[in-house]
Design a protein that fits this description.
The complex is a heterodimer of chains A (293) and B (365). Chain A is mainly α and 293 residues long. Chain A is built from 13 helices and two strands. Classes of the chains: A mainly alpha (293), B alpha/beta (365). Bound molecules: adenosine-5'-triphosphate and magnesium ion. The site of magnesium ion has 3 residues of chain B, from α3. Adenosine-5'-triphosphate (ATP) binds next to β2 and α3 of chain B.
Chain lengths: 293, 365
């Protein structure tokens, strides 16, 4: 006889599905709606116009170099082509729709990661007991191979984008919790004492002192969350989330090198754009929080 | 009347506080021994003191002697383990959260060694913080904050980032932030220790001047590890050692009658005339002295040292006027008073030199 741990886990999932079906349906609706709404927004304008929007964003938040990269990189993903003097010019690889689908998946998952991760991080910073409890859970979430929780995710949420968002959420939340926790704990003891000595309530302390002083660190966590979310794109494609992961998966299963390469390139371009922009946003917040002394 | 009154105050970190107190108090074990026996650190050991209205009460001691802990027991940034602290006759150790917040918002403010400024707020934002958390509306509190910034000489820096300012200016911001809601009590934890000597002296003088000008003046509990600063600032000084208060007295009392060898070792090499301020030797003008004074312009600040006024009193025909920064006559100081201090100091210094020589001779033998 062997211990049937896996069997028990399967039973647990079945039980959850049977008894908390309404809950999971609710989650599916919320996530599904958010993702598709975001997708609609991102696809509202034609690809070339969105490229200009992203370029402007990169310019405003980051540097001209990032803007330049965004312009050409994103341009490469559009389906822009035109005929001039009888010659046909092809500008893009024609991946715009799935790029925006990927972006909406990442943004949705990251949004939920932050919505959960930042409050949990703050709570863990305030209470050592919570910190001790949360730590192993985070380790578990980060080290468990994502394929493993894809299975229950599919059982509970079906195939498609929603289980992709859920799996991405699980994988991408830990850095947000950790860095929020760290950021709040790192706020200088004297600043805390000062705030206390002027009669701050705990809420005033958090909102007026701790959170703003921790903001650069928290934003570093946001950056990591977004990048980890992006790294889940291919895995999400395995369970039917549409996006840039699809050409990669197809390339793999059908041994089509060209297709896999193009999908991968798209992911890299998106990754560099998201990384530089979120990082620059963090640095901007950091500059206004330059340490005294 | 005493504004702050602490009685049998203890702060014991970790271990078994009851046992640690018994060992230290009843069996006379040292701080180190108690730590060894119980694992408890006695930061404040049975301290009793009172701070009178409008005085500057200095707590002086070496690093680790418990000064910061003692100070924080007063506004309960640190919870005292045993004992009582009264502010204006009210026991604050039993205050609940709300009462405590009220106390901190209305009665006392604190200034920190490394300034404790909020880097994400402008200078003005820092200064208005206390008013903001007590719910004063924006235009009113900014108006008040601006006025306080003018008071500490920082007009024009309202919108700067505190990180852009020099140390001295940062501490002015810290001071303004503490003064903005007209506190009755100012708690200063080594507020000037992180500053360059020149800036530090400037800040000391300014604080003394400010305190003279205020009506009613702040009561200040001032922590320092620097004897010169203690003697200069203090109306009275408490000397701390290993958590207990070794002596409380005026600068003159501490210098003339050190309570034990420990205090003695602190003060033995002090040139009294350089640190004792004129205010401690000045007196009321007698007879027609006051009329006579108005004819001569020469006057000194009550905070100048005796050594500094010596040349002046030697040249003057009669007593020299002591006037505060508002040019209000505080008293007079005569040649005789100053000379008496100087000779007393000379004999005092030679006495301790003699003692040191004898001790060395005995060691050698
Ligand atoms: N949170 C704490 N836990 C344990 N021990 C502490 C704690 N805070 C202070 N102590 C100990 O209490 C004693 C007094 O510390 P305190 O900071 O009050 O000294 P201080 O006179 O202000 O020294 P300094 O000049 O270095 O600021 C020291 O022995 C210190 O190690
Ligand atoms: Mg200290």
């Amino acid at each position: 006889m062997e211990l049937d741990l896996g069997g028990w886990f399967a039973l647990l999932i079945q039980w959850l599905k049977a008894n908390l079906g309404a809950f999971f349906d609710g989650v599916t609706t919320v996530i599904g709606t958010t993702t598709s709404a975001l997708e609609d927004v991102l696809l509202f304008l034609p690809g070339w116009a969105m490229v200009l929007v992203f370029t402007a964003l990169a310019w405003w938040v980051a540097t001209r170099g990032v803007a330049l990269f965004t312009f050409f990189g994103m341009g490469l993903l559009t389906d822009l082509q035109f005929t001039l003097f009888g010659t046909e010019f092809v500008i893009g690889m024609g991946y715009w729709d799935i790029t925006m689908q990927t972006l909406s998946l990442i943004v949705t998952a990251s949004l939920f990661s932050l919505l959960v991760g930042i409050p949990v991080g703050i709570w863990a910073a305030k209470s050592d007991a919570v910190d001790k409890t949360v730590r192993p859970i985070l380790d578990f979430m980060q080290t468990m191979p994502p394929f493993v929780y894809l299975i229950p995710a599919v059982v509970l949420f079906g195939l498609g984008t929603v289980p992709g968002v859920i799996a991405t959420f699980i994988f991408a939340t830990p850095p947000c919790v950790r860095l929020t926790n760290l950021g709040i704990r790192q706020v200088s003891e004297e600043a805390i004492e000062a705030a206390q000595s002027f009669g701050s309530t705990p809420t005033q302390m958090l909102v007026k002192v701790e959170f703003p002083m921790a903001l650069p660190t928290i934003l570093a966590g946001v950056n990591q969350t977004v990048l980890l979310a992006l790294s889940m794109v291919v895995i999400a494609a395995l369970i039917g989330s549409s996006g840039l992961g699809q050409p990669v998966v197809e390339g793999l299963t059908q041994l089509r090198i060209a297709k896999g390469f193009e999908g991968g390139l798209g992911i890299v371009i998106l990754a560099i754009f998201l990384d530089r922009v979120t990082q620059a946003a963090g640095e901007k917040a950091g500059a206004s929080t330059a340490q005294t002394r | 009347m005493a504004v702050i009154e602490a009685e049998h105050l203890w702060k014991i970190f970790g271990g078994d506080p009851d046992r640690a107190r018994t060992l230290a108090r009843d069996e006379g074990l040292s701080k180190a021994k108690v730590k060894e026996e119980t694992g408890s650190v006695i930061a404040v050991n049975n301290a009793s003191f009172d701070v009178k209205a409008q005085e500057i009460f200095v707590v002086m001691g070496l690093s680790g002697s418990g000064k910061s802990t003692l100070l924080r027991c007063v506004n309960r940034l640190i919870e005292p383990t045993f004992g009582s602290v009264q502010v204006d006759g009210e026991e604050v150790t039993t205050y609940d959260e709300d009462e405590l917040r009220q106390l901190r918002r209305t009665k006392m403010s604190m200034v920190f060694q490394n300034f404790g400024l909020f880097p994400h707020r402008s200078v003005l934002g820092n200064v208005e913080y206390g008013l903001e958390v007590s719910g004063m509306d924006e235009s009113k509190r900014q108006e008040k904050a601006r006025r306080t910034l003018d008071l500490v000489g920082l007009e024009g820096y309202e919108d700067s980032n505190p990180g852009e300012l020099s140390g001295g200016m940062q501490q002015r911001v810290g001071l303004a932030r503490a003064l903005v809601d007209d506190p009755e009590i100012l708690l200063m934890d080594e507020a000037f220790s992180a500053l360059d000597p020149l800036i530090r002296e400037e800040m000391q003088n300014e604080l003394l001047d400010l305190q003279d000008q205020w009506d009613p003046a702040c009561t200040i509990l001032f922590i320092t590890h620097d004897l010169d600063e203690a003697l200069k600032m203090g109306d009275r000084i408490a000397i701390m050692k290993d958590g207990w208060i070794a002596q409380i007295g005026t600068p003159t009392e501490i210098l003339m009658n050190p309570a034990d060898d420990y205090v003695e070792s602190f003060v033995q090499n002090v040139d009294r005339t350089k640190v004792i301020p004129v205010r401690t030797v000045m007196r009321e003008p007698r007879g027609d002295e006051a009329d006579h004074l108005s004819e001569t312009d020469a006057s000194v600040s009550p905070h100048t040292s005796i050594a500094e006024v010596l040349p002046m009193v030697l040249q003057a025909d009669g007593p020299v006027a002591v006037r505060d920064s508002g040019e209000v006559l505080q008293g007079v100081v005569s040649r005789e008073d100053v000379m008496e201090e100087v000779t007393r100091n000379a004999s005092n210094v030679s006495k301790t030199r003699e003692a040191t020589r004898q001790a060395k001779a005995m060691e050698a033998a």
